[in-house]
Amino acid sequence: MFVLWMLTIILRGTHIHCTVGVDKRLIKSQPREFPPRTSLFLQQYDECPDPEDFYNCTGYSTNHSRDGICFYFRNSDTLNCEGAKLTRLPRGIPTNVRTLLLSGNHIQSINQWMFSDFTSIFFLDLCYGWLHEVGTNTFTYMLSLEHLQIMQHYAMLQVGSLAFYELPNLKSLRIGPIQVITLDTVFFDLRNSRLEYLGLYDIKFDDIRRTTFDNLKLCPLTILEIYKSQINLLDALAFSGISKLHEMVLSETQIILVNRDAFMALSDLQSLNVTHCSIKDLPSGTFDPLKALKLLNLNGNMLQTIPVDLFKYNKNLVHIDLSNNHLLTLPEGLFNFPSNIHVDLSSNFFTCDCDLVWVSSWLGSLKNPSVNKNVLCHLPIKIRDLRLMDFKPVCIPPYTWYILSASLGLVAIVGVVSLLYMYRWKIYYQWYIMLSKRKNREVWMNHARFAFDAFVAYSERDFQWVLHELIPHLEDNAGPPYMKLCVSDRDWDLGSTILDNVESSIQRSRKTLCIISSHFLKSEWCKLEMSMAHMQLFSDNRDVLIFVFLEKIPSSRLSQHQRLRRELCKKSCLDWPGSNPKAQRLFWEKLRSLILKRHRETLPAV
Question: Are residues 491 and 583 in the same domain?
Fold first, then answer.
């Protein structure tokens, strides 16, 4: 049976792709030619492994079943039990094995006795299985171990005390998912190791602070990778405990906030890969401390804007990837680099306008043939998918708009000032009219100091109209409420001067009724009476004037105050209708209404 089995293997001569979770950069390449298998565990056999892919850990798939099958290669002391669904280590494993591949198995816990006989192992892979418990002092006897991978699919790792303590030669570690508090214990155990590479998988960080990696200060750590994790905050000096880093990868890790000083301690960092981390904003100065940075990858985030000085101090950059973000525009002067730099701006949401013309010119000036120049416009819709390099709008320099705006503003100011000057008297007069009507406090004008309802200011030549028309209609023949007019020829005190009589009449009357005619306009006394009545408006905030025009008077013959009154207070200006009886009746009704109208006077507030 054994002979037939060996013949079957020789005749088939086929290979299988096996995946191994090891970092190629940290493991010396093994010999490419492997001798035939010398041992077979667990009875079944499918196909031989392919040496070309033997140390590639990225393509492992549980779809290719190898239940119960392990392969041992004598020249490299390698035991490959990947995907064998083992629940424990098979019997008969040579104790001198150096590479032990156990990914994709059903081993649920490991302890110090499981590996106590394998003191020569330098590479151990326990990825993507059912492992959930690492016991106390598990790796105590594995003093030669340099590369350890414990990344799981199914359970949160529970780690016992001192599990990683006796690993002085450990150079690379991939671990997760694991609680942060447990991770601190792992870091404490590794504080004196030779760790150069650290990969963290599925870690729920609250914050990464300056003390998070303090236990690794003595380690020569140069590479940090964090995958599929969550970080609420990258705080200031978050990586100060591992300041010797040359390369950092934060991939598929949700990062909510980034402090501008998060990378402050990483002056030696050369490669920063922050991809698919849902970052929406990067503060100005975030990358200022990274003087040695050569490669920056921000692919697949949610950046909409970028500060103009984000790369100001990164003079050694040769590759920038901003593709697959939500960028709408880019500030001019962002890329102040030599023409041989590689920049990828593809798959963004650029709004093609005059603010992006400089990007079009800059892309055209790049000499690097590998630059992705297929940067497309997203908006406006009419030019969507147009290459940005082909976007050639006619743009007016920004300062032109400033000059135009300043000029228009100056013209507007001059215009407003001119209008205010031209109509200053109207505005002044209207202001006092408004003051007289303010409704701060209402008082009826029936105070005892008013002896007359109206003082009549008229020219002597118009006395007959006053005597035969005005007095009969407002005093003699008028019904209640009865009115009393102050007429100079009848009611003035003969012992007083004209000026005193005018002032007294205006003060003792509710209204001042000006009978305007060509004779009135020629009389200096009439002008004086009207001016003194005007003073009630400006001194007491009482609008007392009523104009009655006995004839058509052109505006050119009126004084400034008279013109203003006729223009602004049309309701208190009446025209004598002449001999029309119906019109006269309406005229007298309006005049009585104006004289007896309840007046509003502004008093000081109590």
Answer: yes
